[in-house]
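Problem 3 from the worked examples.
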Amino acid sequence: MSQSIVSARRRLATFTAIGAAAALALSGCASTSEGQSAEEFTGEYTGPAVELSYWNGFTGGDGPFMEKMVKEFNAEHDNITVKSNTMQWADFYQRLPAAVTAGEGPDVGVMHLDQLATNAARGVILPLDDLASELDLSEDDFTSEVWNAGIYNDERFGIPLDVHSLAMYYNTEHFKTAGITEPPTDDASFQEALAKLQAAGYETPFWMPARWPSHLMNLSLQWQNGGEPYGADGTQAQFDSKAGVDALTWQTSIIADGFSPEDVAVDSQYVAFKNGETSITWDGIWQINDLTESGLPYAAAPIPTIGADTAVWANSHNFFLPKQRSVDNDKANAAKVFIAWMSEHSGEWAGSGMIPARQSVRDSGILDGTVQAPIAELIESMRFLPAVPGIGSVQAETLEVAVADAVLGESDPEAALAKATKTASKLMADNEASFGK
């Protein structure tokens, strides 16, 4: 099995494993201390030598870039040694709650933004408002969407390292053969490009997968159509709005119009693109280094604005501090120094294919000439899931299933989304009762 397929299935498992992680948190994290805090953070650490356990899930092409940054940090700090514990994201989210409850969690870690609320609600991670204040970090240096998505119950639980979104990858040789001189930017130019590619002999130029990342495409299109997949108060889903139905109908039309095969398995569209079999694919910017190393003639651009509004699904890696059974002020403050250093040096992280979350870092020119530079130009259009506990498992059990059913022709878009919306709203109500606010 190819590494790309394996990575995709593991990504999918990450989202479906959240339910198990929540269950672990339910049974264990209630025993952790409340109101835990360290002594005031001064912005630097001058205490005795400490060793920090740092948990992360950077097992792919991004891993070497993170390890390089950790080594640089250690070299600059004689009294702090950071030891990385790197694991698959699915394992990370399963292990973290139980480890924290047992007093065996990390001293510092990084997780996806859409997992912060769940872990905050279960008492797994600590607020970081003092750190943000000390570092003078505010919405002014971030997009409002990524900054505000790290807030749960009026407290900040994450410091954003990056943003990573879907992008449109296209084979530059295929485009040249088809006479396409610019990447498509809207529905009309996208349809025109697909028709030209077919005419040039590329029979199925854009594969529509049934699963990953098809639901991320759907979310992007919902936002582009002016919709919101979840209600503002986080208690109900609204996939079955006109915006949602139009989004899924467009996805199924790609197959109906003959631009895609009918049954595209998880990650098959990416493998086909990487092998030069297809002309266009929508996937995450985390694929950049893999595509570059493959030698494929390609370029990247923002996904086209199919609807009326420019918008695209995105996520973000955020640093966090786990709750500790007993507070070690030296380790707590050393961990904050580590987070501060990583944030300040996030330009180096751009080498992993990610986009630094801080505007001041992006303004330094660190992205000039990179593949992700065109995507970063539209960072204001990136959208994130709301800070609702358990949202990952809700989505995996409902929206992902509805999108797959419609793409596979097992249900029409309206019926599939109506069923998913009803189930998701029930799950969200259950979560509200379970997690509380």
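Problem 4, a separate protein:
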Amino acid sequence: MDIADVMQTIGVNARAAARGLATASAAAKETALLAAADAVWAQRADILAANAKDLAFGADKGLSPAMMDRLMLDEARIQGMVDGLRAVAAQSDPIGEVTESWTQPTGLHIRRVRTPIGVIGVIYESRPNVTADAGALCLKSGNAVILRGGSESFHSSTAIHACLEIGLVTAGLPKHAIQLIPTRDRAAVTAMLQAVDHIDVIVPRGGKGLVGLVQKEARVPVFAHLEGICHVYVDGAADLEKARRVILNAKTRRTGICGSAECLLVDRAFYDAHGDILIRDLIDAGVEVRGDASVAKTAGTVAASADDFGHEFLDMVIAAKVVDGVDAAIDHIRSFGSNHTDAILTEDDAVADKFFHQLDSAILMRNASTQFADGGEFGMGAEIGIATGKLHARGPVGAVQLTSFKYLVVGDGTVRA
């Protein structure tokens, strides 16, 4: 396979498809997404068979249990993909939405209207459901998309992509609106990062190695987050039972996702009042707790090294530290966080307000698990990723965030003095 030729063809086809999608009706896009959802469910046996090949490949590569969990599909997760496709289909079409309008003293009437970005490139690792999520969101927002799944999820992504193509054909939309690069060759990633003539923005979804590579080498603009170093701060005014529930969920529900808590900060006042109960809960759940001097007094913990704070474990491991109040917690998060998602557990409104106003993470939460850092949980149907930059898109990137805008200006023979 000549990668350069393949990528050139894919890019040209994507750009042509983007022109067609820009004027596609909302009804056609909805039809395509619903037909794709039906196809995913109808072909779930084939998807699971393809996933079994990927799981064997991942096991041979020695993927960690958390990474294998990311890769694994079962009927419930396929149902989740189907639900996501249908949820995106049911959303209002963002294209053509007037976000603002006004009339100038000159008589000009100006409207700002949502438009597609054009062609989106999505590079992702082991989670095959990203194929469905990214395809759906790009289609809903009128963008063509070029998908490059990870080598581990190659067979699963191919099977899911075939269902998305069925949806496009059913609705009479361009087949090349959603393309999957048909090779594991890493040269295809390099080609995407340099494809300024064909791709308008790259969205990397994966670990630090992948995202760092993309940010370093891309000539195409990037929406990305480098790491999900999510903190949970337990304030002195936190409710004990809420804290116990939230912390266990934030760490253990799924350890391999970017919304998993990686650092627990406990106010000394809470620690003095309730002892090490939160630490023991984590240990009892099978989590390795790497603690500072105060936390490490608890049997079963491990003394933390300097590198454990600011580290994305993506595993049943968490760093933990006792801090002197919310100001110390904020300072720690500013030093070691990644501007992804951070949470405070407190019943004190003033403390919560300080946490919200003095931190600049893309997502800040109060009395809720960081595992809710997900576009689906935000009502977006799905997400293409979490953006931690400050330009264009921030937080969960759904269909609306994959749009640009243009100004439509109407006069009546109006001339400028």
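Solution to problem 4. The radius of gyration is 23 Å. DSSP finds 14 helices and 16 strands in the chain.
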